[in-house]
Amino acid sequence: MQTKIKVYAVILAFIGWGTACEKALPRPPADDDVLDGPIEGLTHEQNKIFLRGDVAFNDEIFTASTGLGPLFVANSCGSCHAGDGKGHPFTTLTRFGQSDTIAGNLFLKLGGPQLQNRAIPGFQPEQIPAGATFSKFTPPANTGLGLLDAVPDAVLLSLSDEKDADGDGISGRPNWIHIPDYTALRPGYAERNNKYIGRFGKKAAVYDLMQQTANAYNQDMGISSTYEHYDTYTGQEIDPEVSNQTVLDVVFYLKTLKAPVQRNQQDAIVQKGKQVFTAIDCARCHTPTLSTGASDITSLANITFSPYTDLLLHDMGPELNDGYTEGTATTAEWRTPALWGLGLSKKSQGGQYFLLHDGRAHSIEAAILLHGGEAQISRNKYKLLPAGEKEALIKFLESL
Amino acid sequence: MKKTLLLILLSTAASLDALAQIDPVLLRRVSKDSTRTQLNMDAVYNRPFLQLGKLPVSLGGYVEANYQYLQENGVSEGHQFQMRRLTLFVASTIYKRIKFLSEIEFEDGTKEINIEFASVDIEIAPLLNLRGGVVMNPIGAFNQNHDGPKWEFIDRPVSATQMLPATWSNVGFGVFGKKYTDNWVYAYEAYLTNGFDDKIIDNSENKTFLPASKENRDRFEESFNGIPLVTGKVAVKNKQIGELGLSYMGGVYNKFEDDGLTLDKKRRVTACAVDFNTILPRVGTQITGEWAWVKVDVPDTYTEQYGSRQQGGFVDIVQPVLKKPMFGFEKAVLNVALRGEYVDWNRDHFKSTGGRIADEVFSLVPAVSWRPVAQTVIRLNYRYNWQKDLLGNPPSRLAGFQFGFSTYF
To answer: Which of chain B's residues have a Cβ under 8 Å away from the Cβ of A15?
Structure first.
């Protein structure tokens, strides 16, 4: 009888510990501590599409037998965007071949514009051709892209000041680009000489998330689709290696990823930092709020949100001029990156910062101090700030 | 979740008094040679078999099923009931020094059906036995000694089943032998078999993954590249101290030529392992461990996700706390146990930053197990995993409870 009691006691103790102690099971991270997850208000049907896109984006690993390469940069979408956050130098892209806005890319027949720096066994990866200028692009975070996509062109045009009419030293202009035939123009689109406003990518040379997705499958992973059907190795048209449905699911997933949630908004130092941010004119380019227009996804329509970008090109000065460009951007011009999610970057970049277009800045301050050109005045103002205000500004940026 | 878990476990615990009686008349248990010290390499024969009358064939097998509730970063797939394995053994003594044994396993229902072992052993001398057929490559200890009822843990060790590819069997031939002295046993095994293929660095696991080659169903019929995989092991056991094994497995994994044309250079995969087990005198604590290293020649121009070096292992500590008749079982044993395991899937460094590639998993599994008889184990496990991605971002945390049984029949 005593034995039975002992056996029951051991088993019951184990059960009791397991069932009473919720801490035995890992809790979900706080919503403001992660970048993944859908925007609020999706329908059940939309949740299903989101989940399909999530699986295709984060779980589908391409292999040689499923179409990877033979030349590639990464073997899955998630390789470049861990947790939907910013990427790491491990998957930094190299683009090459275009050094001005007139002649275009002279190296398209030599593998441009993107270097596929890896190859499946038995193949040799590309090399940058002699004489080609190039730049490296760190993969950006994916969050809130649907909101950025739904901002009407008219809003971007209203923010631009191409000829610096207000004389503040900050111009800001759209990148007018040719678009592939599979992209659908957004409502109220702007057009100039058969070119349209690009808004995604380091140089704003991508029109929308459809183009971004089809291009990433093709150029990053060597996966052809009915949208981008040329093999990056042979240059020949080949059968699709990913279905239209999967591409569309991934586009939907990217559109409906939630926007990063700001942390510590009520913290006095964070609030002070926000004031400093405005006072030294960071907000002139890193526009705090934008609004969406109409969208076929109800949750994205007519929303005011805080991305801290104007989606426009700005001359960032000689220190960030790599001599490479895309579309009608000059080599020194870069699209203002959204600052939302900046404070969570370390959690997707392996515990350290790799900021600016190529990850060369390893701290927020280093990134600020590399701003030149139109941002030179703000940089100078930052340098003159008292230590407390600098610290507050950094804390504010880390809260985003 | 709490209520369901409680209900399942309590009802199972309460039913321990009501286990059915089995009529043993028709089938008789084959007696085992218990006079000689057993090694891991003897595990294939060190199983309970049943014989029907005077038939020259012995039958056996084991089955394991379990319930689990796991949660990863706060998200759970709910309550899962799993029939992990049903394994059938057929053995025959063709002549007193010629034996045949086979092991056929059904995993996850009928999702995977594998011949894990099917070989003929011919004893020329104790130090020289010939073995041919489907053999279990003797890398580490777990690959040969993997039967569910022998372990207090529901999950098999990560390092043994996902880094090393247990259960890893191939067609081939080899030799083995043992030498006994008063307190010592010395043993060796060496085999040439079919081997790996290029899936080990081209798979949807997104890491160098030796078990990916098991997907190649043709490996029982043809070698992927025509180069034999060499596997060898030496082991020594002292009756008082325990058993130590050192093993090696190596070969070419890629298709370097086809139809007379050269496709690539020959690329090698090598694994080395050390295993140890002992029972501490007086307290009876059983300690079992295995550590292994894997080295793969991955092309420099390929993605660094597929690492060229891996390492990992596990240690199981099992402490019997009650050994006495329980619920009518004369030799019942109640154990508490703990497994610690670790695998570094990629020991390389990023070319871009020089930083260390993380990609590692660490887990702890405390357990309670009850053995009403030696061949049957009822197990309650708690698993906690930390898994870091390639970049070393904050780990994914998985934890939960598992409850199940495993028994020879």
So the answer is: 5-6, 9-10, 380
From the list B113, B114, B119, B112, the residue with the least C-alpha distance to B135 is: B119
Asked if the structure places residue A327 within a domain, the reply is: yes
Longest dimension (CA), chain A: 93
Compute, in degrees rounded to 10, the torsion defined by CA atoms A208, A210, A213, A217. Answer: -130
Q: What residues contact B172, with CB distance under 8 A and at least 6 apart?
A: B132, B135, B191, B192, B193, B194, B228, B229
DSSP A103-135: S--TTGGGT-SEE--EE-TTS----PPTT--EE
Global confidence as pTM: 0.90
Contact by Cβ (8 Å): A268, A388: no
CB contact under 8 A, A121 and B336: no
At B216 the three-state DSSP class reads coil
Q: What is the set of domains in chain B, with CATH numbers?
A: 2-7+37-69+79-408 (2.40.160.10)
Whether A273 is covered by a domain: the verdict is no
DSSP secondary structure, A6-20, as one string? HHHHHHHHHHHHHHH
> How many structural domains is chain A composed of?
1
**pLDDT at B2 exceeding the cut of 80:** no
Closest chain A CA to residue B75 = A28
**Closest Cα in chain A, distance from residue B299 (Å):** 6
- Domain enclosing residue A196, as ranges: 37-259+322-331
Question: Rounded CA gap, A377 and A390, in Å?
Answer: 16
Of the candidates A12, A82, A124, the beta carbon closest to that of B393 is on A82
Helix (H) or strand (E) holding A367: helix A364-369
Residue type present at position A16:
G
Counting one residue from chain A and one from chain B, the pairs whose CB atoms sit within 8 A come to: 138
ipTM: 0.89
Which residues on B lie below 8 Å from A79 (Cβ)? 206, 303, 305
Q: Per residue in B100-155, pLDDT tens?
A: 999 999 998 888 899 999 999 999 999 999 999 999 999 999 999 999 999 999 99
Domain assignment present for residue A70? The answer is yes
Q: How many whole angstroms separate alpha carbon A255 and alpha carbon A54?
A: 11
Helices B2-14, A2-20: crossing angle, 10 deg rounding: 170
Across the interface, which of B5, B353, B398 has its CB nearest the CB of A19?
B5
Asked if B336's CB is within 8 angstroms of A3's CB, the reply is no
Question: Is the residue at A164 inside a domain?
Answer: yes
